[in-house]
Amino acid sequence: MTTITNHMPTKELQALDAAHHMHPFTEDAALAKKGARIITRGKGVFLTDSEGNEILDGMAGLWCVNLGYGRKELAEVAARQMEELCYYNTFFQTSHVPAIALAAKIAELAPGDLNHVFYAGSGSEANDTNIRLVRRYWDVKGKPEKNIIISRKNAYHGSTMGGASLGGMSGMHAQGGLPIPNIAHINQPHWYAEGGDMTPEEFGLARARELEAKIEELGADRVAAFIGEPIQGAGGVIVPPSTYWPEIQRICDKYGILLIADEVITGFGRTGNWFGSQTMGIKPHIMTIAKGLSSGYAPIGGSIICDEVYNTVAGSGDDFNHGYTYSGHPVASAVALRNLEMLEEENVLDHVRNVAHPYLMERWQGLTDHPLVGEAKLVGLMGSIALTPNKETRAKFASDAGTVGYMTRERCFANNLVMRHVGDRMIISPPLVIKPSEIDILIERATRSLDEAYAKIKAEGLL
Ligand code: PMP
C-alpha cells in the first residue's frame, strides 16, 4: 500500500477516508458523497486544508485548543516524557511524577476544597466516573437508595452510555437504549427560545425551581446529585439568566444534593476565570474537566473532587472499583501540566478578560444589526448568536429547526471560518490567545457568511 501523506491529492484522501473512517456525529454515507475537508496543519488560530486554504478556527477544534495550534513547547514536553516513561498505570500501589504534579497543580487552581483528582481519558469518561462516584459516596454514607442524578434537557455530558444518559440530547437518547436507569431531566434555562413573555430573571428562577419540584417528586432521599454545565456549550452556548445558578445552589444546599459542575468547556480560562463555576458564582462538590486541561494536545480528562466526597469514598474500607488504563497517562499529564503553566506564564486569563473578551464583545454585539440576528451572547470567549425571522418576537423559522443554521454554517465553511450551528444558533469558542486583528477577520467572515445566508434564504422563500 502507498504511504498516505498530506501531499496526496485531496480526492484520494477523501476516497480513503470514506472507505475506512467512520466519523463521529455524522451520516457517513452522505459525507462520503460530499467528501470531508482534510485539515493538514494548524498554527495559532488558523488551520490549513489540503487545498491550501487558511481557515480561522472559531471553535478551537472542539472547544479545546485554547493555547492555539502549533505550540512547540507542548510537542517537546510530550517527546521528552515518551522517552522517559511512556506509560505506567496508577492502579496497583504505583504512581508517577506527571500524574502527581498535574493533580497538585489542578488542586492549586481549583477553588475551595476541590483538592483531589481522579483522571480519565476524556470528558465522557470523567462523567461516567462521576456517576459511579456520587452513587458510591451515598452508598458509603449508608444511603444506597440515594442514587438518582438530575440533569437538564439539551445538556451535553458526553457520548458514553453514562455521559449521554446524563446529557439531555433527544437525538442521542433515541439511539442505543438510553438513558440508563436513575437519571432524570428537567428543562433548560434557555430564555431566548423558551422564555415566552417572562423576563429572563423570572424565567431563570422558574427553571431553577424545576429542580426543587423534581426533588420533591422523587424524594430527597433518592436524589444523589445535580449536574450542569455552568454555561451550556454544545446545546448552543446558552448563558443562563443571572437568577438561575444562585437558586440551583440554594436548592442543592437545602436538600443535601451534591452539585457537579461539568467544566469540560468552561474550565481553564474559557469564561475569563479558571473555572466557569467562579464566573457563575457556584460551589460544586465535583467538577468534570477535559479539553482545555491540555489545550487538546493530548486526550485527558478527570474529576476534581472535594474533601468530603473524597474522604468518604477513600476511607470506606474498600476499593473504589473504577479506573481507566489511561487514567493519569504520563504523556497526557505532562502535556497538560505544561499547558497550565503556559496559561499562567503568558497571562492568558488576563488576555481573555482585558483584551479579547471586551474587543470581541463589542464586535459580536454589532452583529445584532444584521437582519438575521436576534441576540448576541458572549461570556469570556464562548459566544452565540440567535438567528430569527423576527427579532421582536424571537420567532423560530418556519423551516425545520437548524435549516437556516446549517445554511449559515455552510457559508462560513466556504468563507474559511469555522463557526458551528446548533439548530438556528451560531456558536463560537475561539482559541483563548486570539488577537484583536484576528477577531476582525472572524467578524468580517461571519458578516459575509450571514449576508450570503440571508440572500439565500430570501431567495428560497424561507423568511
Ligand atoms: N461535557 C461537556 C460539557 C462537553 O462539552 C463535552 C464534549 N463536548 C463532554 C462532556 C464530553 O467530552 P469528551 O468528548 O472529551 O468525551
From TrEMBL:
Pfam families registered for this protein in UniProt: Aminotran_3 (PF00202)
Organism name: Albidovulum marisflavi
Keyword Transferase among UniProt keywords: yes
Keyword check for Transferase: yes
Classification of source organism: Bacteria, Pseudomonadati, Pseudomonadota, Alphaproteobacteria, Rhodobacterales
Known cofactor(s): pyridoxal 5'-phosphate
Keywords from the named record: Aminotransferase, Pyridoxal phosphate, Transferase
A molecular function (GO) term: transaminase activity
PANTHER family tied to this protein: AMINOTRANSFERASE, AMINOTRANSFERASE CLASS-III
InterPro entries membership: Aminotrans_3, Aminotrans_3_PPA_site, PyrdxlP-dep_Trfase, PyrdxlP-dep_Trfase_major, PyrdxlP-dep_Trfase_small
CDD domains assigned: OAT_like
Family: Belongs to the class-III pyridoxal-phosphate-dependent aminotransferase family.
Protein name (database record): Aspartate aminotransferase family protein
